[in-house]
Design a protein that fits this description.
alpha/beta, Udp-n-acetylmuramoylalanyl-d-glutamate--2,6- Diaminopimelate Ligase, Chain: A, domain 1, 2 domains, six-stranded mixed β-sheet
């Protein structure tokens, strides 16, 4: 296969994506090159990119961008800035990088949101849902018990602790799940949930915590990367099915931070 075949597949299947206004595109390399293997990872850091090269793969599929802003040497420290070095590394190695974000965020059932729900143990259909969010029943649990269940689920992803806002002994019944950088607590609460699973990049904690304390809702927080890692695992499985003649490997990224207590 050529790398561009992946993009064409996404365009054919992804009717939910505005292909005239999307971040899903090639960020580096020659899309017409033959693919030696596909590495799937949440973020293209030096360590995950190097792992792809160690595997002998030349196509790196990422959910997040190469940089958080445009690389401009005139505004950066100099040639040793990591973003400048990353661009040079990509040019030197010829690694192709394809961003698969909008397509996989909303892919039914196995995309980012569906994979997160299944990873947490919710295998049935949600009680309610809208773009980015799902609500599932957790009757018979307290906030503390639910948080501990989630903690055991995310430990294999490298997250050593979850944060809780609310009374751990409070009984809860419906949890709203969100991922990524958009966990709008008001929208999630409006779906009928009394506990919200937010991400650290998806909420301004000084705002949402005050709202939760004043309104009696409960919050559980995990890392942005943690919430989307199950979706990257499922993307690797998906790509193996679409391109059976090509090696595809998930390169773990996991939680972005450790915990010292």
């Amino acid at each position: 296969m050529r790398a561009t075949d992946l993009h064409e597949h996404a365009r054919k299947i992804g009717s939910w994506v505005d292909w005239d206004d999307t971040v899903d595109e090639f960020l580096a390399g020659d899309p017409d090159a033959e693919v030696t293997g596909i590495a799937v990872s949440w973020m293209p850091t030096f360590s995950t990119l190097e792992r792809a090269r160690e595997l002998g793969f030349n196509l790196f599929v990422t959910h997040e961008p190469l940089y958080v802003s445009e690389v401009d040497e005139a505004r950066l420290v100099g040639p040793d800035d990591p973003w400048v070095r990353k661009r040079a590394w990509l040019e030197e190695t010829g690694m192709m990088v394809y961003r698969c974000h909008d397509f996989w965020d909303d892919y039914p059932a196995v995309g980012i949101h569906g994979a997160w729900a299944k990873w947490l143990g919710f295998t049935g259909p949600p009680l309610s849902a809208e773009k980015y969010y799902e609500v599932h029943g957790v009757e018979g649990l307290t906030l503390g018990a639910l948080a501990r269940i989630f903690l055991e689920r995310v430990k294999p992803l490298g997250q050593e602790a979850v944060h809780v806002i609310g009374d751990p002994d409070q009984e809860v019944s419906r949890v709203a799940l969100g991922t990524g950088a958009i966990t709008n607590y008001r929208r999630m609460h409006a779906l009928g949930a009394d506990v919200l699973l937010l991400t650290d990049d998806g909420t301004r904690l000084w705002e949402s915590a005050q709202w939760a304390r004043d309104g009696g809702a409960s919050l559980i927080l995990v890392n942005h990367a943690t919430s989307e890692e199950p979706g990257m695992i499922s993307l690797a499985v998906y790509l193996r099915g679409v391109f059976p003649g090509v090696r595809v490997e998930h390169v773990p990224g996991g939680c972005l931070y450790g915990t010292i207590s």
